[in-house]
Amino acid sequence: MINIEGLVRRFGAHTAVDQLTLTVAPGELYALLGPNGAGKSTTIACLLGFERPDEGRAVIDGIDVASDPDAARSRTAYIPEQVSLYEAFTGIENVAYFAELAGHPRSREELSALLSEAGLQADAHDRRTGTYSKGMRQKVGIAIAQAKQAQVLLLDEPTSGLDPASAHEFSTALRRLRDRGTAILMATHDLYRTMRDADRVGILVAGRLVEEHKTSDLAEHDLEAMYLRAVGAVEAA
């Protein structure tokens, strides 16, 4: 569903992404770990069509993103660290608007059900999202992904700054989407959530994928040690 093949993105003399190749299958959650500046956000920007690769390809559901970004984005939902919503709209109105844009209009009952399934309390559905906490906004993002029937979900540090209860609810919603067949790529620093939620993990350092494993083959302390070793080895080189 997601295929990245020999991806290179340069900014002047700096190579942000360096010959990156990875795949994410339908019904798989792939966690992309790496320090700040490793190239995680640039990789996601290439998958969204916001950055054009200098070499290689980013492919969504068989569609080359650089060649047809609109078609690729129609199959994709994106949840950044800070979800942007129309703050004068209510939660239901935001989901309704984005579902309409995607060509999947929903009834009020369906919209409310999607928000509830994402973990948003019923008494918040008709409140303006300008009053929402970060965790509440992330839940609206999940509901939007479901409403537009996205086959691919891209996330950039989605649990950063969330309290433990909100992070748990967000993880539950993510696993539900994965179990329904969504291909999920999550850029993160969160080792705990990676071990809890991801099927596979890749470690990106200086734009290069230096480790890739099934999380079922790792213990949490092994992942931490591997991450620190990988980052330290590249920084020392």
Characteristics:
237 residues, Rossmann fold, 6-stranded mixed beta sheet, alpha/beta, single chain, 4-stranded antiparallel beta sheet, globular, 10 strands
Please trace the helix and strand order, writing H or E for each element: EEEHEEHEHHHEHEHEEH
Question: Averaged pLDDT, please?
Answer: 92
Instruction: Indicate the radius of gyration in whole angstroms.
Output: 18 Å
Helix fraction, binned, reads 25-40%
Low-confidence stretches: none
CATH architecture of the largest domain: 3-Layer(aba) Sandwich
Count of individual domains: 2
Please give the CATH class of the largest domain: Alpha Beta
Q: Largest beta sheet, briefly?
A: 6 strands, mixed
- The class by helix and strand makeup works out as alpha/beta
**Major beta sheet, strand line-up:** 6-7-8-3-9-10
Instruction: Find the count of extended strands (DSSP E, 2+ residues).
Output: 10
* Amino- and carboxy-terminal Cα gap: 34 Å
CATH-assigned fold name of the largest domain: Rossmann fold
The quaternary organization reads as single chain
Pfam family, one: ABC_tran
Protein name: ABC-type transport system ATPase component
Keywords: ATP-binding, Nucleotide-binding, Transport
Organism: Sphingobium indicum (strain DSM 16413 / CCM 7287 / MTCC 6362 / UT26 / NBRC 101211 / UT26S)
